Amino acid sequence: MDARTAPLLWMPRVGAAPAQPLPLDGNLRDRRQRPWRDLRISLTDRCNFRCSYCMPRSRFGPGHRFLPQARLLNFEEIAQVARQALALGVRTLRLTGGEPLLRRDLPRLIGQLSRLRTLDGTPPDLALTTNGSLLAGQAQALRDAGLNRLTVSLDALDDAVFQRMNDVGFPVAEVLRGLEVAQRAGFERIKVNMVVRRGVNDGEALPLAEHFRATHGRGVVLRFIEFMDAGCHNGWKLDEVLPSAELRARIAARWPLQPLPATRGGETAERWRYADGGGEIGFISSVSHAFCGDCTRARLTAEGQLYTCLFAAHGHDLRPLLRAADSSETLLRQRLAEIWAGRSDAYSEQRERLRALRPQRADMHVLGG
Prior knowledge:
Layout: E1 8-10, E2 21-23, E3 38-42, H1 75-87, E4 92-96, H2 106-114, E5 125-130, H3 135-145, E6 149-153, H4 159-166, H5 172-185, E7 190-196, H6 205-214, E8 220-226, H7 244-254, E9 257-259, E10 269-274, E11 280-284, E12 297-300, E13 305-307, E14 316-317, H8 319-323, H9 329-341, H10 351-355, H11 364-367
Parallel strand pairs: 3-4, 3-12, 4-5, 5-6, 6-7, 7-8, 8-11
Antiparallel strand pairs: 1-2, 9-10, 10-11, 12-13, 13-14
């Protein structure tokens, strides 16, 4: 029996009624009846920025030891996990880091993933999130290899603020140039993410909104992300969180906004449009408006740990299974199904209680956001 002919896995439940069959297809659900639709794949734990909300220099300075190459999943192993995730109903594959453009020969992996198929026989929605620092030199190769969508992190338009945010003195002009090159390469709908911290860079929200309003005809959508308590080293404080509702009111006072419907289930961003036709913006509100109830995402780290929540303390190690001499795609699919079926994560809904326990959560640069 191979992965294509194994429709069910029997999952024993200790002390319960006889086990029920676990679907090994798109009908798979977790304990809260959420389907699995998105897999985020971290390609490296390395990054060339030291943003304080992700990899603060105080923790990730010159002496920090990153994963050795031998610990990283190779492209074939990544493709194996992706193939079986797609067989379980996943539709979107998002490549992350660290900074994913630091991974060598990335177009080869994108080519492998773009040739995979979802349950309905279509290619997966293949996306990538980057800080944009290396985008100008790689955008065309990424597009040619089959990458569908891009998300670029950009936390300020003012160069001095941006350089303070990335903490390596990298100029904002080079990220903007990368966006222009990506548009010329054929990326038609690019998302730009701004992590907003009250008192740090919230003054840049309106300038960024104005900038991308002016270029909305070229398909750039700006999204504002509340500062989250991901990991244990980013100095998160509740008073630095600017709730999306407050920020949206600031923007609407300048340019009236109208709500837009979600494009699909499990979408993290609430969508809005400018009433005057100036384009679209989004708000990701994990702190003030938890969206655990319809979360459809899992995260694969660069060394093969599968996490079912951005705020989880521990993952599930897939590397021994991937590298075992007697492993098979059937066993891999079964293991992935077991992990998802056992999932009950809802950190953002329970943030106050869970934070009091001081859990050792995995860092953002490991999970890829």
